[in-house]
Amino acid sequence: MNSETALPPIVSAGDVPAAGDGVVIADVRWSLSGPKDAATFREEYATGHIPGAVFVDLDDDLSDHSVTGAGRHPLPREDDFAATRARLGIGPDTRVYAYGTDDPAGAARLVLMLRFSGIAAALIDGGLPAYRAAHPDVPMEPGHNDPTPVETVEEPLVRLVSIDEVAYAAHSRSALLVDARAPERFRGDVEPVDPRAGHIPTAVNVPYAAHLQADGTFRSPEQIRRTFEDAGATGERIVINYCGSGVSACVNVLAMEHAGLRHGYLFPGSFSEWSADPQREVETR
What we know:
Elements lengths: L2 H4 L3 E2 L11 E5 L10 H10 L6 E2 L2 H4 L16 H11 L6 E5 L5 H12 L4 E4 L2 H8 L28 H10 L3 E4 L3 H5 L16 E2 L15 H11 L7 E4 L6 H10 L5 E3 L3 H7 L9
Parallel strand pairs: 1-5, 2-3, 2-4, 4-5, 6-7, 6-8, 8-9
């Protein structure tokens, strides 16, 4: 299935179908700024989630922390991700709708990985709060749902770039590097988690939070497109998106597609991989 035509990257909460009959709803709670861990997110999921939704753990299901030297959230191997999809009930023809709570980045990571694997997946605009507002008569479901496993096959993830490809793009300016982190981290004013402060040379800053309105829903495609175009994205030039660890940059890639901009790629190791290598130059400003 061609995921980019089967489902748009972002869908309105009011258009989300019920789980079942080839539809999987995924609850991917994660927060860039909060101190919560997976156990807390799982407990919150158990107190109430969209009916039929399955819980997805960003660290266990969408990352492989046994991999070293590839940033703080290395992508899982293709066979491991295929096994995760099968366990979650996501087959090649399944449609997946993913949501978060306060932060869409974790859900965006799942959606992007699925779309890059050729599976139809969309991010629910505004997450759980928007769904509850759009479906006031639908009670939230407590407890845990055990998904029904399905048969699936390994699929390569496309539109990923390596650290050496990023270095070439920075040197040759053959692609636009877009940093999705907050401006203060991009400039190098602060760096709370990674080895060095600053950003990859030649990168421009388009914080993923700039695409969100106060209620957590996305700004219009026209507004998002203007933000990227102001940063140098033309729709014809490859745009390599990165962040701290390859999670929040997924929001930028989906936002590009939402705005009708092509050629959005992801550097999954992101700045945590780049800054850990002392041979890689870092800029501050």
